[in-house]
Amino acid sequence: MIFDSVFTLIYGAGDCGILVARELLSPTMNDRKLIGFIDDDPHKHKLTAYNLPVLGDRKAIASIVSEFEVKEIIIAIPSAPKTVTSEIINLCISTGAKVRIIPGISDMLNGRISFSTIRDVDVEDLLGRDQVKTDLVGIAEYVQDKVVLVTGAGGSIGSELCRQIAPFQPSKLLLLGHGENSIYNIEMELKSTHPHLHIEPIIADIQDRARIETIFALHRPRVVFHAAAHKHVPLMEKNPSEAVKNNVFGTQNVADCSDQYGVERFVLISSDKAVNPTSVMGATKRIAEMYVQSLNARSNTKFASVRFGNVLGSRGSVIPLFKKQIAKGGPITVTHPDMVRYFMTIPEAVQLVIQAGAMSKGGEIFILDMGEPVRILKLAEDLIRLSGYEPYEDIDIEFTGIRNGEKLFEELLTAEEGATKSGGTGTGGGSSGSDGTETGSAGGGASAPQTLESIKAQTQKSLENLRDSCINSILALVDKYEGKELGLAERPEKL
């Protein structure tokens, strides 16, 4: 008996599990006591490896953890589908043991299995689907030797766009943002990782039409990724004029300048909240989609939109909030026990955006196939367990009520929008493919009842003194807008 050692169980008695066992049995790893293996292949049961028995399948996990006082489970099945891995992680978490995982099959193939490659399970492992990974080589050639503008370049999506675009050697990368600190940070990062890249940091407000025109006239971008937006639903419910000014007028400014100055490709970052919107934020994003689709009908620029759900780890995401609440000892706050959301990772979102720019013929809305939606309550419970606590015992969960503008569930397409598979993303252009994304031809373009002229007529109002009546008339451009009309500029939240 080795005292003070961590009793450890390995899930998976295949090649990877054997390599993990060999590593943990080395003389330098004497802080662990290996109990044995779990494997779902009945032919391996009662076999041994390094004198360690295969104790049973997943059904036996709870009893084995209890009997042997297991404190740590290492999941060593890197080739398993993400859906299977997610199920196993949940089973292991429910035992109260610490759960760790081998990150990928490439580590095993390259012989890099060591204790340092074993990591803690993260919330991304619980999504229940394989991440969409796209080989951007070839696809991203449309940015090579071109002046590329990224608006909102200091944000979560904008900064990752810059990181993924930089290796493809644009002639100049324009980092446009309103916050100087975030733009400075991404500028310094890119100068370190890509010292020969021509980077131009630009502090500007997309609502300032004259400033945006000056930037386009000076730098003449050929490719534009428009990521700048106000995205926080409850905040925009309380500040609707700012949502309209930034998400509608700001998009109009950047899109109009793209058309005027001969941009080749323009990609708008949109949101699933634009579908049948119940929030000011969602309605403004839908108007932005409609605007670029209408503009596409008469422009030489190829305009497209990319629509996706919640991004894990982004600013304002629920995950960082939950982690902060757990670190303080709770409680975790969830708006409603039945609240569900689609989730994706930041790299996935950005790959979709870059790929959409390459595939666009103009006028499409691209959508990532994000699998099944995730219950926010279950996500909170899993995150508590991943942190080594038990929900409702160590960390409580409180329900605060649905906030203004929120839905219990989000949609990706309206009833009128069709969806076709495409190679890596989907497009409404009707292309076919099968690697995990799709797009809808999301009603719009030249045939949209909300024409370019009607939208422009609404947006001639004063930006500085938007009244409720003006905001309401702008939001009314969205047929499916289900939010309340404004009676006051400031709308209180429901509790």
Supply the key terms:
5-stranded mixed β-sheet; alpha/beta; disordered C terminus; 9-stranded mixed β-sheet; Rossmann fold; 495 residues; 2 domains
Distance between the termini: 56 Å
Give the overall shape, derived from the CA principal axes.
Answer: elongated
Give the CATH class of the largest domain. Alpha Beta
Known CATH architecture of the largest domain: 3-Layer(aba) Sandwich
Helix/strand-derived category reads alpha/beta
CATH topology (fold) name of the largest domain: Rossmann fold
Mean pLDDT: 80
Number of strands: 22
Strands in their spatial order, largest beta sheet: 10-9-8-11-12-13-18-22-21
Number of helices: 15
Strand % is 15-25%
Low-pLDDT windows of residues: 106-111, 423-436, 439-450, 487-495
Radius of gyration: 25 Å
Largest sheet: 9 strands, mixed
As for the number of domains, it is 2
Helix content percent band: 25-40%
Q: Please, what is the CATH homologous superfamily of the largest domain?
A: NAD(P)-binding Rossmann-like Domain
